[in-house]
Design brief:
The protein is α+β, with helices and mostly antiparallel strands and about 400 residues long. The protein is built from 12 helices and 18 strands. Bound molecules: acetoacetyl-coenzyme A.
């Protein structure tokens, strides 16, 4: 029996803003974003999508392959909550037609929530092998217009089926973690955009990596060379390159462009175009690696570092399954990314504004923009109403 990821699927909004256009509109140099931050595009959420539609759309391919009635739990990680009480997972439970014999809960710790959910799911399956847990991480990364964070927005969801048949990645027992009470990034209840101390947040990320790795080594006694590739939480792709250089220094490896590129493989490719998806972004990186790496990674160990501001960091590992390539949704994902529609800067601003208004208003009909299967159609008597495409 190997417990871990049986299927992994992502969804992102079908609209994007090109970072060259962003640079021009904000009067910045294009290379600041393409090179300095490491982002080419960012997915832009339309007013008729939210974390529920992102999540349900991400989980749909898995639910088309497996009977939804066999799912025993939904662990929904997000820091873009739409309700202070009702779990976003309950909406997803309804939209996907899951069994009433299923537990649903929403989890939060900034971008770390997805990993907390994954580890809980793995432990649930270890205790009871009949559990089949749907882990979903979904977020909309949203900062104030004109702030330094604006360039690092994005949105998306990753859904993972966790069971005792790890067709894709077996999660190994034993992690290293690090927690510290810090104010690097936060979003008070009365705000729909995050507040962030940007430079400080990148320093705390690196500190968390150092101590999580040290703890991991004490627990697992694995050396740098025991890993074929590394995946990181990706607020922007340059962050992972900085993180990996730090890890190489800590482990006395020679860090240069070639050795870093070798270790990261193709894990940055999707995130360069999707942008930050907070709790989902590490898992976008994992999918990107598995779907694009030229080398067959079967049987190899992947190191994963999850970071959530506030802060929690966790370093853990997984072993890639023998026939993992047979179980990936590579074509679906690449078609989704290729079919996204480019927005002008003014349409991006209009979507941004309307999305904020949807969050603040009641009794509104929401125009239809997305081509996703699920969308938010209205809010009536403070209740969100979702519809499915009829096709
Ligand atoms: N060509 C090449 N590089 C250029 C350039 C050019 N023309 N112009 C600037 N650069 C480089 C800069 O030298 C800099 O590189 P270094 O970081 O290696 O020094 C990089 O581009 C960014 O430039 P600035 O430092 O001037 O950028 P900024 O001050 O506008 O903001 C930021 C950068 C702090 C990351 C900001 O985007 C931000 O606050 N983002 C949100 C916070 C965030 O993502 N934090 C990450 C850690 S926290 C976390 O991970 C949780 C999460 O998801 C939020």
């Amino acid at each position: 029996m190997s417990v871990g990821i049986q299927r992994i699927s992502f969804y992102t909004a079908p609209f994007y803003l090109d970072m060259s256009e962003f640079a021009q509109a904000r009067g910045e140099e294009r290379d600041k974003f393409h090179i300095g931050i490491g982002q080419d595009q960012m997915s832009v959420i339309s007013p008729d999508e939210d974390i529920v539609t992102l999540a349900a759309n991400a989980a749909l391919p898995i639910m088309q392959e497996f009977d939804p009635k066999t799912i025993t739990a939904v662990l929904f990680a997000t820091e873009s909550g739409i309700d202070q009480s009702k779990s976003a997972g309950a909406f997803v439970h309804g939209l996907l037609g899951l069994s009433s014999r299923c537990r649903v809960v929403e989890l939060k710790h900034a971008c770390y929530g997805g990993t907390a959910a994954l580890q809980m799911a793995v432990n649930m399956v270890r205790v009871n092998t009949s559990e089949r847990v749907l882990v979903i991480a979904a977020d909309v990364a949203r900062y104030e217009l004109g702030s330094p964070g604006e360039a690092t927005q994005g949105c998306g969801a990753v859904a993972m089926l966790i069971s005792n048949q790890a067709d894709i990645l077996a999660i190994e027992a034993g992690s290293g973690y690090y927690t510290e009470d810090v104010m690097d990034f936060w979003r008070p209840n009365y705000r729909d955009t995050a507040l962030v101390d940007g430079k400080y947040s990148t320093m705390v990320y690196l500190t968390a990596l150092k101590y999580a790795w040290q703890y991991f080594q004490e627990e697992r006694h694995l050396a740098y060379n025991d890993f074929a590739r590394f995946c990181y939480h990706l607020p922007f792709t340059k962050m992972a390159i900085k993180a990996h250089s730090r890890l190489m220094k800590l482990t006395e490896q020679e860090a240069n462009e070639a050795t870093i590129e070798q270790a990261m493989g193709s894990s940055l490719r999707y995130n360069r175009t999707v942008g930050n998806s907070y709790s989902a972004s590490l898992y976008f990186g994992l999918i990107s690696l598995l779907e694009n790496d030229a080398e067959n990674l079967a049987g190899q160990r992947i190191g994963l570092f999850s970071y959530g501001s506030g802060c929690v960091g966790e370093f853990f590992s997984g072993i890639v399954a023998d026939r993992y390539r047979d179980y990936l949704y590579t074509t679906k994902h690449q078609t989704l990314l290729a079919a996204r529609q480019q927005l002008t800067f003014s349409t991006y601003l209009a979507f941004y504004k309307q999305f904020g208004e949807v969050e603040r208003n009641d009794n509104i009909e929401i125009a239809h923009y997305t081509n996703g299967h699920f969308r938010l159609s209205a809010i009536r008597a403070h209740k969100r109403q979702y519809v499915q495409q009829s096709s």
